[in-house]
Write the structure tokens for this entry.
Amino acid sequence: MTETLFNQILQAQVKCKDCEDRRANIRVSIELQSTSNPVHKKDLVVRITDDIDPYFLYNLVISEEDFQSLKVQQGLLVDFSAFPQKFIDLLHQCIQEQDKDNPRFLLQFLSSTPVLDHTPAHLNIVETNAFKHLTHLSLKLLHGTDVEIKKYLAICLTCVKDERLLLEQKLQKTEEDLSRQLSYTQQTLSEKSRELDRLRSEWTSQTTALSNKHSQELTSERERALEAQTKYQQQSEQQRRELESLHQKNIEQLQTRLVKLETCNKEMTERKYQLESIIRDHAAKLVGLEDESHRAKQEVLSLRRENSTLDLECHEKEKHINQLQTRVAVLEQEIKDKDQMVIRSKEMLDATQEQKLTIEENAKRTQLHIGKLEAAVQSLSEELIKVC
């Protein structure tokens, strides 16, 4: 009884003596043969073939006794029962890595002769890392004898014949299916062609009727559109005349308003210049008052120094000192009054400047503000005249 455990094509690195290494696709087959006559035993058969070269055949039969020797020689840690699956797992690792530039697991096929002839060869599974090349398994395979090659070719021929017979059966079935489908398709095509002719006839008659109907509707729509266009043109002309008349009236009103605004603006400008002149006069008076206040302060300081000196010099001049103190108090009161006057003048000046900006920004409402400003300026002038 033979059980096939593995049968796939793998990419192997082929090394021959004095030859350059190359990569080739080989088929690896693993079978488990069981015999029970006269003694029950199991043999693992490893076969290496090439689908392109039918004479390429290497075999290895490993019995349980041979495996014990192999296990000792290569330091294997598995039993004979688990060895096939572990071997297959390593081959799957090689399949996963074979398309990479630097595969981690590599399948090697080594021969001690320049060409692959009838000499034995070794099948190695090598793991490559940064430190070394680690050989997990190395199997020595024998080239097939003529009898084994003929038997293998006979098996291949039988498989090819079986495949050919299966393909012929599939081809015959496919031809029958295609013939039925062709017949059904032709019948369907004939029915669809008749239906298409009928639909074309109906479509032609409907198209003619719709064309005539659409022509009449188009003529009617053109007449209605021409009437509507004429009506809209008349309405547009009338609206244009009305708008031109209204626009002309608006222009005349705006021109009249512009003349008034220009006159008012001219008056406001003249009034602004007058107010600026008054503000400059007030500013000059304010500077004079500040100078006078400064001189008064200087005089107060001088009097205070004289007062201190006189107080130290003589007690007899106490009366005179009292008079001077009285004078100093009067002067200080005058200075305070003048300071208050200066503050009021500054506040009036700020208010006047704010009113000036308000006048420039709100030209339409300047008349009312000007009346108030004139009253304020007149009052300020009277107060300044009284002070001076």
The chain has a mean pLDDT of 86. The first strand starts at residue 2 and ends at 15.
